């Protein structure tokens, strides 16, 4: 039983580390701020949650697991809020997205203020 | 009133979790715990009055069903974006699209916008009354979001606990 | 051993996020890098607790998750509205010099 | 346990490297916002270092003050100045040698220190065992960090407590909403402040 849990933890950790790495790599490689937001999203959602699940498996049924669950829920709810706030702030000051066709940038967007 | 009692109970549970003390014989520590719960409750009631819209969220089967569906979507979208990032010539075609949000309440719209942002590849940028401006990393992601039934799912869930 | 792998798998991305914070170029890139760095620090602290056999350190990880979120929102609020108080539309229009704040 | 020692050393080395890179970045950057952001990151890393050193209380304070309040204070200060530094820093030879000299002296001083984690170290001989043994009966607080900080070392910690309290008030200010009637005259004030 313990071996199964250990193997599962290894799998979750490797998967989590893979997604965290990929997300951060995307933050370095992608051409502009808006596209980097998507890459950061990989780290914040899948990478983080997988790693936290691995830790929960190792902690077993204890108060530690409950705390890990709180952390994972908190990150799950706040990370999209922070991402939206970032995108919204950048959009509000008129930061131009890279590679988006002009037709998509209808004036309605900028006149919102 | 039920809202306040529920909040108080969850705050007390949270305090017990963080302090790790459930024994009743230590009166001082227990007193501090009760005091902090009461203080937070007072602040919450005061903020409700200033904000004007207390948010009541109840765990319904529908909500959990939605979370499971959302988790699946997040997984799929993550793999898609990871493929783009890891491919040698990143094939991106960023788009800005407007998505109709048919929810009635603020909470519903916030849930929808958060769900859009949570799935990598799409980020909600701005919210008008009933439209959400979304930045998508590829054209496929943009059309995929417009064609998906995320909006209906959130609306269906919203009516449940409004 | 498995948490050592997790720690290594967190420290390298932290370095990469730091690089994004150094390069910029816009201030939003830097805030994004800071936020992402914070998330990784939360995870690293939790992992360190497991390595040292003292998962009690999770309280700090929890506090960090809170601080990271509040900090990010505070910075954005500040740059969008030019103060930490209330928003009004004039501020949004006038405070639009954020895109010039980039080049190091 | 041996294995975890090696892992800890490796983690320490990597965190110190990150600290060094961040510090150099702060010094080199001419952009004040980048400096503010990087110093936030610096606090995050140093708090992680404190956790590896088992200094949980310091890490707590560092999280609340370093990463939270001081970043906001720096941003506040930035509204009063321009966005980037005017002059590039020139290399001053004299101060460089003084710093290197002091650094060398400090490192020389560490040679005489007891090995890290040694139970024979004076710090662990004196009063710490009493604190740890007596904490449960003396203070009756389950969390030993709390009992040492807030009771045994109460006066010592008073400043820190005040700072954390101030940090809490700062958070309340950030998240609080003003009432409608205050909003009107406040917005005209902020408009004026921006021209200055």
Structure write-up:
The complex is a heterotetramer of chains A (113), B (162), C (104) and D (196). With 113 residues, chain A is an all-alpha fold. Chain A contains four helices and no strands. Chain A has one domain (2-110). The longest helix of chain A is centred in the C-terminal third of the chain and has 30 residues, at 63-92. In chain A, 53% of the residues are buried. Chain B has six helices and three strands. Chain B has two domains: 2-51, no CATH class; 61-160, no CATH class. Chain D is an all-alpha fold and 196 residues long. Chain D contains nine helices and no strands. Chain D starts with a helix and ends with a helix. In chain D, 21% of the residues are buried. Mean pLDDT of chain D is 76; it is low at 180-196. Chains in contact: A-B, A-C, B-D, C-D. At the C-D interface, helix 1, helix 2, helix 3 and helix 4 of C face helix 1, helix 2, helix 3, helix 8 and helix 9 of D.
Question: Which descriptors would you attach to this protein?
Answer:
heterotetramer, B: mainly alpha, 3-stranded antiparallel beta sheet, C: 104 residues, mainly alpha, 4 helices, disordered C terminus
> How many alpha or pi helices of chain C?
4
Derived structural class of chain C? mainly alpha
**Count of beta strands of chain C:** 0
Average predicted local confidence, pLDDT of chain A? 82
Assembly annotation: heterotetramer
State the end-to-end distance of chain A.
Answer: 59 Å
Radius of gyration of chain A: 19 Å
Of all chain pairs, the largest interface belongs to: C-D, 57 and 56 residues
């Amino acid at each position: 039983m313990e071996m199964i849990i250990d193997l599962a933890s290894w799998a979750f950790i490797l998967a989590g580390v893979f997604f965290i790495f990929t997300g951060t790599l995307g933050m370095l490689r992608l051409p502009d701020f808006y596209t980097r937001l998507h890459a950061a999203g990989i780290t914040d959602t899948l990478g983080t949650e997988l790693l936290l699940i691995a830790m929960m498996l190792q902690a077993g049924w204890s108060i530690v697991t409950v705390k890990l669950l709180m952390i994972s829920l908190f990150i799950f709810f706040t990370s999209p809020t922070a991402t939206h706030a970032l995108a919204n702030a950048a959009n509000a000051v008129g930061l131009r997205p890279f590679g988006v066709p002009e037709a998509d940038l209808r004036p309605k967007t900028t006149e919102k203020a | 009133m039920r809202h306040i009692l529920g909040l108080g109970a969850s705050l007390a549970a949270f305090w017990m979790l963080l302090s790790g003390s459930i024994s009743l014989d230590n009166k001082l520590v227990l007193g501090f715990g009760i005091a902090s719960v009461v203080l937070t409750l007072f602040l919450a009631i005061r903020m409700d009055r200033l904000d004007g819209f207390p948010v009541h969220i109840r765990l319904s089967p529908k909500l959990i069903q939605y979370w499971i569906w959302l988790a699946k979507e997040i997984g799929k979208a993550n793999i898609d974006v990871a493929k783009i990032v890891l491919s040698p010539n990143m094939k991106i075609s960023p788009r800005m699209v407007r998505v109709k949000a048919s929810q009635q309440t603020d909470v519903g719209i916030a849930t929808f916008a958060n769900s859009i942002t949570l799935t990598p590849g799409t980020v909600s940028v701005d919210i008008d009354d009933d439209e959400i401006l979304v930045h998508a990393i590829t054209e496929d992601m943009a059309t995929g979001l417009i064609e998906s039934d995320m909006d209906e799912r959130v609306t269906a869930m919203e009516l449940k606990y409004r | 051993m498995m948490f050592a792998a997790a720690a290594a798998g967190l420290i390298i991305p932290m370095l990469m996020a730091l690089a994004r914070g150094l390069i910029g170029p816009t201030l939003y890139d830097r805030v994004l890098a800071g936020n992402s760095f914070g998330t990784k620090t939360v995870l690293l602290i939790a992992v360190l607790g497991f390595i040292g056999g003292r998962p009690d350190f999770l309280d700090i990880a929890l506090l960090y998750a809170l601080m990271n979120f509040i900090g990010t929102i505070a910075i954005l609020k500040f740059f969008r509205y030019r103060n930490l108080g209330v928003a009004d539309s004039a501020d949004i229009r006038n405070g639009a010099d954020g895109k010039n704040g980039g080049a190091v | 346990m041996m294995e975890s020692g090696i892992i800890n050393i490796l983690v320490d080395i990597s965190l110190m490297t990150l600290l060094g890179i961040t510090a150099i970045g702060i010094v080199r950057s001419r952009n004040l916002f980048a400096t503010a952001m990087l110093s936030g990151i610096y606090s995050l890393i140093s708090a992680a270092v404190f956790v590896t050193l088992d200094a949980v209380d310091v890490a707590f304070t560092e999280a609340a003050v370093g990463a939270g309040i001081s970043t906001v204070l720096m941003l506040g200060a930035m509204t009063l100045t321009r966005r980037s530094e005017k002059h590039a820093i020139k290399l001053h030879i004299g101060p460089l040698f003084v710093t290197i000299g002091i650094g060398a002296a400090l490192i020389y001083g560490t040679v005489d220190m007891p090995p890290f984690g040694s139970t024979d170290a004076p710090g662990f001989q004196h009063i710490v065992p009493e604190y740890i043994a007596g904490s449960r009966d003396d203070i009756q607080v389950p969390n030993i960090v709390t009992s040492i900080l807030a009771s045994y070392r109460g006066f010592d910690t008073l400043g820190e407590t005040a700072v954390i309290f101030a940090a809490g008030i700062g958070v309340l200010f950030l998240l609080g909403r003003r009432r409608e009637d205050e909003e009107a005259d406040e917005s005209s004030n902020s408009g004026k402040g921006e021209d200055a």
